[in-house]
Amino acid sequence: MNRRDDADLPWLAERERPGPVLRKGAGMTPLAWFDPRGRALGSFAFALNRITALGLVLYLYLHLGVLSLLLRGEDAWGDFLRLATTGAFLGLDVLLLFGLLFHGLNGIRVTLVGSGVVPERQRALFWAFTVVGVLALTAGAVRIVGGG
Ligand code: HEM
Fold this sequence. Notes:
Layout: H1 10-16, H2 41-67, H3 74-84, H4 87-114, H5 122-146
The structure holds protoporphyrin IX containing FE (HEM).
Protoporphyrin IX containing FE binds next to α2 and α4.
């Protein structure tokens, strides 16, 4: 079989056409957004950066909503704190920490590469920040779940 059948994957052929923009070509269905084939590491990082960005925006609004419970008095806040210290909720805190670390560290990587400080080291930076992120996430998760 060929390395790739362009008739089956027209958007891959479009993507490889020379030029500054990766085109979404003719014949591409919306499902192609979710097709991981032929994508480089940077594409996955970009997708996860966007997903974590949306998660952080959602969290910001939730956070403001939760803080507004303070206006309803001590009982409402106490009820929320009881919920916030359950195992499931603490798991969401760890997920939030993951989103913050990925988005923040990837943001620094994109900035360093895009601004020309280290233009040819984007993969190395990705893995270096992954190590930093995993260490920070592990330390944070231990503190969140362990109550330290
Ligand atoms: C921790 C510090 C942060 C850093 C260093 C950072 C950095 C960045 C960078 C560099 C981009 C552009 C990425 C690209 O062009 O490929 C970006 C996108 C974005 N960031 Fe952040 N960010 C941070 C925190 C946040 C927070 C807290 C939020 C939400 C409340 C947020 C929401 C977004 C959104 C919505 C986008 C657009 C994503 C997209 O278009 O795919 N960021 N960020």
